């Protein structure tokens, strides 16, 4: 059976319309003298339809505010659960299967088994966010479009019942119905009233002994603008996890003079020099001084960012070709920024290490100098020419020591470098073996001079002084962050803010007036600040010599 | 009015199906993306290209069809040093049957490696890595040895010092799969 949804004014309304879209007459039975429900201007939501099919039911589900509220509550609760214990993705080198049980007992084990240790990456959490997003979109569309249409085609002359049941009502017998010029007087009054309202920024229409004044309709769109902002926000958050390279939060350590690839990118970072400044003794508090604490004042990584342009992949034999892109001194809160990559100063460590040393080859007995040469500790060259002599590096131990009486290197770090040369030239045609320890303590510990004496080396290799030694003192720890979703997050936040301001600081006010044979009937509606609306109407009426107390405009009838 | 209804239906279907598709992509992406997929037993050994100590170069791909032993080692690592003569002897015994041994050095100075190779009489190729391949292969402990079949699939990963018994089982298995 088709329900008759035609209003007496002749307008055909959609099913479930509460108030006629045209004249505002209530279409559903409401108790006598009850105030009207003005939500969404009484229009039917899109999802309200007869004989819904599956699509309509799904749409209807998402369009329900009740469902939306439950979704928000569930999402909040789950998000809260995710904060109970540390999340797996914050672990570095920890086995999550053991961690939770060891640190949080049985509860921790259950937590881990239920998958809360990866709450924010889990399919059900992302699924919930999507349900929420869908609900947001559908709820908004379902209401905003009918509301927009209803507000667009408002009739000036509203039904008496519509006006009488507003929260703000004023009735007055202004003109005698038997007056021949009653129509003209009514129109004249309305025009005057319209002019007063126009000065208060109302848009006014007058026709057929009726008036409609309206202002700040845009504030009705505030909530929907907020929703648009929220959806952009949500999309940004999701894109971060979906698109590779949009989000990164990693830590890398670079020793002074070293260059390292930023994982997952084509960029390399070099730590040219690390400097740290400490507070002077007189800058510290007495308590700190007593504890003998050393507090850094400033630490800074002189960093260079390179981009790899050729031979960048792992299967390439050639050394990667790097081009310098940016130099920046990274300090706390002064990160290096390039192409969305940010490198923050995070920490440092004192890790002194010999990098290179300039040495002199001499005759052991006469002290005659044959020349200088440079020794690296990382990957030393294997042959050197010094004066008339040829030196071949036949052994290099970065971390010299003895194991079962045999010389070995204990690690690949140059903690105690030792060089063994075979030197050929005038007087040593068959080659002399000479051992050299750059660090004075190693020279003594491993008895360098006695070894060379035993080997019969006529040479002496030594560094001239400290200025000939290059040290790497510090290792810097940098936090590398990429968050390409951030601009979108900002856009969403700004749009949301605009919507909030629209809906908060303005109110949609409407005033309707109709005359019936000299009888004035005024009704008014706003979505908030009723006090302000009544004041405004009382003032406007005062302009036409109708002096009333604003409070008297409150409709006497009560809501049930 | 009918046109409008059709449009409305279309928009509803569009919105709902877009949501379903994006949800599916996101969740599937999250479920199946193993960010740093490290080679495991049964997976294909990632290819690499490295320079050798004597100035040449090798790619893993070049040895497809051969059983390959990839040994990550360093002179500073005692068990690596201990197992070297054993690996060398297996190499000498089985190289005629197609066995390839690649010793990947863990970022040491060439002088250090050269002296070691000379002193221990190592004849299989020594490849000089700068931590890239080590990281790709997820090698954390030394020595680590990968046994790669002729099909390029990792048959076994052995962490620690190889003994004659452990090595012979694996080499036999490698060679028997050499059809």
Note the main attributes of this structure:
heterodimer; A: 560 residues; alpha+beta; 5-stranded antiparallel sheet; 12 helices; 31% helix; B: 179 residues; alpha/beta; Glutaredoxin; 7 strands; elongated
Question: What's a concise summary of this model?
Answer:
The complex is a heterodimer of chains A (560) and B (179). Helix content of chain A is 31%, strand content 31%. Chain A has helices at residues 54-62, 65-81, 96-113, 123-152, 160-164, 182-199, 222-242, 286-291, 440-445, 448-455, 486-505, 530-542; strands spanning 168-173, 203-207, 210-215, 247-255, 259-261, 267-278, 296-310, 321-331, 336-338, 341-363, 369-376, 383-386, 389-397, 400-403, 406-409, 418-425, 428-436, 459-463, 469-483, 509-516, 519-526.
Question: How would you describe the overall organization of this protein?
Answer:
The complex is a heterodimer of chains A (560) and B (179). With 560 residues, chain A is an alpha+beta fold. Chain A folds into four domains: 45-151, no CATH class; 157-220 and 492-553, TATA-Binding Protein; 247-351 and 474-488, no CATH class; 356-464, no CATH class. Helix content of chain A is 31%, strand content 31%. Chain A has twelve helices and 21 strands. Chain A has helices spanning 54-62, 65-81, 96-113, 123-152, 160-164, 182-199, 222-242, 286-291, 440-445, 448-455, 486-505, 530-542, and strands at residues 168-173, 203-207, 210-215, 247-255, 259-261, 267-278, 296-310, 321-331, 336-338, 341-363, 369-376, 383-386, 389-397, 400-403, 406-409, 418-425, 428-436, 459-463, 469-483, 509-516, 519-526. In chain A, the strands form five sheets. In chain A, strands 4, 9, 10, 11, 18 and 19 form a six-stranded antiparallel beta sheet that branches. Chain A is elongated and about 140 Å long. The two termini of chain A are 32 Å apart. By secondary structure, chain B is an alpha/beta fold. Chain B folds into two domains: 1-34; 49-176, 3-Layer(aba) Sandwich (Glutaredoxin). Chain B contains five helices and seven strands. Chain B has a seven-stranded mixed beta sheet with strand order 2-1-5-4-3-6-7. In chain B, 30% of the residues are buried. At the A-B interface, helix 1, helix 4, helix 7 and strand 13 of A face helix 1, strand 1, helix 3 and helix 4 of B.
């Amino acid at each position: 059976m088709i329900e008759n949804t035609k209003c007496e004014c002749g307008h055909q309304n959609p099913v479930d319309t509460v108030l006629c879209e045209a004249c505002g007459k209530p279409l559903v039975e409401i108790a006598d003298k009850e105030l009207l429900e003005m939500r969404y201007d009484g229009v039917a939501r899109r999802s309200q339809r007869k004989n819904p099919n599956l699509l309509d039911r799904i749409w209807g589900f998402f369009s329900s505010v009740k469902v939306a509220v439950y979704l928000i509550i569930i999402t909040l609760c789950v998000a809260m659960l995710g904060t109970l214990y540390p999340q797996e993705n914050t672990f570095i080198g920890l086995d999550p299967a053991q961690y939770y049980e060891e640190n949080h007992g049985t509860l921790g084990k259950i937590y881990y088994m239920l998958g809360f240790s990866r709450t924010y990456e889990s399919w059900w959490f992302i699924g919930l966010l999507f349900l929420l997003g869908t609900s947001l979109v559908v709820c908004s569309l379902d209401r905003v479009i009918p509301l927009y249409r209803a507000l667009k085609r408002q009739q000036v002359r509203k039904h008496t019942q519509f006006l009488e049941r507003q929260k703000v009502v004023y009735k007055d017998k202004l003109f005698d119905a038997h007056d021949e010029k009653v129509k003209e007087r009514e129109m004249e009054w309305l025009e005057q009233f319209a002019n007063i309202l126009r000065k208060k920024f109302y848009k006014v229409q007058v026709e057929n002994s009726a008036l409609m004044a309206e202002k700040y309709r845009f504030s009705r769109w505030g909530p929907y603008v907020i929703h648009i902002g929220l959806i952009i926000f949500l999309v940004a958050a999701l894109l971060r996890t979906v698109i590779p390279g949009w989000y990164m939060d990693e830590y890398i350590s670079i020793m002074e003079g070293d260059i390292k690839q930023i994982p997952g990118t084509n960029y390399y970072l070099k730590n040219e020099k690390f400097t740290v400044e400490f507070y002077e003794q007189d800058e510290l508090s007495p308590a700190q001084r007593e504890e003998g604490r050393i507090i850094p004042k400033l630490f800074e990584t002189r960093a260079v960012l390179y981009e790899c342009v050729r031979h960048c992949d792992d299967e390439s034999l050639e050394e990667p070709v790097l081009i310098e892109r940016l130099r920046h001194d990274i300090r706390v809160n002064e990160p290096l920024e390039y192409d969305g990559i940010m490198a923050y100063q995070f920490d440092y460590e004192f890790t002194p290490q010999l990098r290179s040393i300039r040495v002199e080859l001499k005759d052991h007995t006469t002290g005659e100098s044959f020349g200088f040469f440079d020794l690296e500790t990382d990957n030393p060259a294997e042959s050197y020419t010094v004066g008339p002599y040829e030196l071949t590096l036949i052994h290099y131990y970065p971390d010299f020591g003895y194991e079962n009486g045999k010389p070995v290197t204990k690690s690949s770090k140059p903690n105690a470098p030792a060089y063994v040369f075979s030197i050929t030239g005038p007087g040593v045609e068959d080659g002399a073996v000479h051992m050299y320890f750059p660090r004075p303590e190693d020279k003594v510990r491993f008895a360098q001079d006695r070894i060379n004496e035993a080997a019969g080396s006529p040479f002496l290799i030594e560094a001239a002084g400290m200025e000939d030694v290059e040290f790497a003192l510090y290792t810097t720890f940098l936090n590398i962050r990429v968050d390409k979703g951030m601009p979108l997050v900002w856009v969403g936040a700004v749009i949301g803010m605009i919507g909030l301001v629209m809906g908060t600081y303005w109110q949609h006010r409407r005033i309707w007036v109709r005359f019936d044979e000299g009888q004035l009937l005024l009704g008014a509606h706003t979505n908030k600040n009723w006090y302000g609306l009544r004041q405004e109407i009382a003032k406007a009426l005062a302009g036409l010599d109708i002096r009333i107390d604003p409070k008297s405009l409150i409709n006497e009838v009560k809501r049930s | 009015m009918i046109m409008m209804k059709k449009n409305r239906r279309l928009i509803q279907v569009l919105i709902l199906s877009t949501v379903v598709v994006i949800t599916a992509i996101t969740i599937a992406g999250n479920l199946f993306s193993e960010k740093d997929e490290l080679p495991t037993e049964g997976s294909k050994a990632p290819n690499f290209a490295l320079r050798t100590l004597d100035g040449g170069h090798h790619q893993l791909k070049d040895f497809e069809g051969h059983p390959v032993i990839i040994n990550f080692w360093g002179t500073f690592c005692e068990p690596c040093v201990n197992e070297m003569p054993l690996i060398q002897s297996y190499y000498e015994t089985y190289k005629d049957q197609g066995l390839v041994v690649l010793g990947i050095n863990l970022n040491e100075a060439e002088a250090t490696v050269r002296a070691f190779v000379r002193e221990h009489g190592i004849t299989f190729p020594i490849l000089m890595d700068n931590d890239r391949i080590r990281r790709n292969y997820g090698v954390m402990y030394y020595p680590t040895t990968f046994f790669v079949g002729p099909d390029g699939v990792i048959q076994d990963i052995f962490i620690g010092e190889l003994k004659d018994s452990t090595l012979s089982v694996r080499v036999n298995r490698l060679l028997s799969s050499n059809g």
